[in-house]
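Run log, item B.
One chain of 326 residues. Sequence copied directly from the ordering sheet:
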Amino acid sequence: MRVHRAYAGGAVLGYLGDMLLGDPRTGHPVAAFGRAAAAAERALWRDSRAAGAAYAALCVAGPAATAALLTRGVRRTGRTTAFISLSAAVTWTALGGNGLSTAARSVEAALEAGDVPSARRLLPQLCGRDPQLLDAEGIARAVVESVAENTSDAVVGALVWGALAGVPGMTAFRAANTLDAMVGHLSPRHRKFGWAAARLDDVAGWPGARLTSALAAFAGPCPRGAVRAWRSDARRHPSPNAGPVEAAFAGALGVRLGGTLSYGGRTEHRPVLNSPGRAVRTGDIARAVRLSRRVGLLSLAFTTAVGVAGRLAVAGTRTDGRSRTT
């Protein structure tokens, strides 16, 4: 029972650490992983899917195995406080809700001040689209879309995998998500090499995206609109995970998302999500941030409850098995 309570306690403390402190200012493990993954890419890059698959497996399995060994070592000490500390530290560094909210509100402040050039300069903190081609409305829409997608990627998805597979699961998810951001796009260099990383991120992000969409519908201002947009528009989006999340946020907030955008000089014409909604305004950024925070808190409550229940069930099954064989 102590281990199960320790898991929940560590997740809650890590979540609070992210909300109150934000990302570690120095020595962030995700930044260290990014540097190591970039070095591995330079050494292993080939213009083939097979090379990319080997690269993705190495970059995700390595951190996950390290986390598993560390977790096993801490559990063998029998010290509940040590296990809580490990879970809290990994949760804190894996989550990015505070950074997401801060970056979104900084763009909002620039737009509110009428400083579109500053808003364009700040936008790359949130997404990779070309800011110079966007007006104030386009920037606001990009921020709301990024808040929606990253609520799943930077908060809910990590908590889901923590509930399913503990510290190793959360570590593996964060590694896969970071790797996708690095190589999982359709640039000429990464079209083949990044294919495996992108597909791995799609698989890992699937449960978190659906939970995010459901919680956005439950906690948003317009639950019926969120469900309607999710059901009618999500499948039209090119991303299997961003589609449901962005559609649910669009319907919940009563706004239109999607449309034409530009990434790295490439123009994409994405479907409009929640077409009955109005155009995004600057004030919708704050509304999206508030919804993101509600979704994060609800996902923390849900995943810790599920995680503890699942571990208790496994422990009970093992106990029953031992009792039958004695």
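Observations after the first pass:
- Residues 75 and 208 are 27 Å apart (CA to CA).
- The beta strands are 260-263, 266-269.
Flagged for discussion on Thursday.
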